[in-house]
Amino acid sequence: MKSSEGGQVLAFFAIAMPVVLLPVAAYALDATMLAGRESALQAATAQAAETAAQQINVRALRSTGVLSLDAAATRLVLEQALAEEEPGARIDSSAATNAEVSVATSEPVRLPFSMFTDTVVLHAHATARLVAGYETPA
Amino acid sequence: MSRGQSLVELAVCAPLIVLLTLWTAAAVQVIDASAGLQAATQAAAAEASRAPDATTADRLARARFQAMVADYPLRSPHLSISSGGFSRTDEVIATASGAVDISWARLFFPGRLMLSSRAAVPLESWRSRGPVL
Q1: Nearest CA to A76 among A99, A98, A103?
Q2: Which partner for B117 in A40, A76, A137, B38 could form a disulfide, CB atoms 3.0-4.6 Å apart?
Q3: Is pLDDT of A1 > 70?
Q4: Does B71 touch chain A (CB under 8 A)?
Q5: Given this model, what pLDDT does residue A110 score?
Q6: What pLDDT is recorded for position B2?
Q7: B88 touches chain A (CB under 8 A)
Q8: What would the pLDDT profile of B63-86 be if each residue is shown by its tens digit?
Q9: A4 has a pLDDT exceeding 70
């Protein structure tokens, strides 16, 4: 090696570290964290939908004998259940038909290591049905 | 003058690369285990909330928990379930703990990290259940 080529390895690492190695490490950490948060949001959304699908309209049941959902109670329970499990999540849309609850949620997640974007918004969707009987739960 | 200089430079830089790689792999393993423990705890609580009685709830929750944590790098996972009197207004509280083993990187990190998680799910209020109403 000629003396003018001294320091090439250091120069290579000085460039490769910030340009390649650190972003790859940051991506690995952010991707793993994001996958965990997404599965947690999906689980919380599903749980909220299931809890909301138990809000039977008792008045309608007593007067007509038909199982249906109380729309107001359903919305309230959705908000409470989601706030308890994932405080950062919010309900984008929800719909309660006679015996089915659908909910779409989203949650902004801050990426601690990413060099390209600060925040990613995760989305989840769940549907739960009110079904009579214990042996065949919804 | 510069004979062997590249080797010295590599010797300076290589440990940094190795350290970065180990740190990343260990952190990914810990984050993965933590997410798995949380998911298993949540699933166990949800499973218990659908059971007809406290004994069945405990059994189903443990089976679900064990099945889920088996897929994650967790050592000595432990679950405790509390469902109060299993009345309609109660909720199932699942508390879990487990260790993540990163002893392969113990030159730089602690060999074992303890993780814990908690989940609470209300009992299904309209479900048929055992003697306690």
Answers
A1: A103
A2: B38
A3: no
A4: no
A5: 93
A6: 62
A7: no
A8: 999 999 998 999 999 999 998 888
A9: no
Reference A12, options B2, B108, B16; nearest CA is B16
State the nearest Cα–Cα gap between B115 and chain A, in angstroms: 15
Q: What is the ipTM of this complex?
A: 0.74
Burial of B42 (0-12, 13-18, 19+ CB in 10 A): buried
Question: Cβ distance B63 to B46 under 8 Å?
Answer: no
Would the pLDDT of B133 be above 60?
Answer: no
Contact B119, B94 (CB under 8 A): yes
Chain A positions in Cβ-Cβ contact with residue B13 (cut-off 8 Å): 9-10, 13
The DSSP H or E segment spanning A28 is: helix A22-52
Rounded Cα–Cα distance for residues A81 and B14 (Å): 50
Q: Where are the alpha helices (DSSP H) in chain B?
A: 5-49, 54-69
Chain A residues inside the 8 Å CB shell of B39: 39-40, 43
Q: How far apart are CA A39 and CA A31, in angstroms?
A: 12
Domain boundaries of chain A, sorted by first residue: 7-129
* Percent over 70 (pLDDT), chain B: 92
Q: What is the pLDDT of residue A137?
A: 43
pLDDT (tens digit per residue) in B42-59: 999 999 988 888 899 999
Is B119 buried (19+), middle (13-18) or exposed (0-12) by CB count in 10 A?
buried
Q: List the helix and strand counts (H, then E) for chain B.
A: 2, 3
Question: DSSP for A67-113?
Answer: --B-HHHHHHHHHHHHHHH-TT-EEEEEEE-SSEEEEEEEEEEE-SS
In single-letter form, the type of residue at position A56 comes to: I
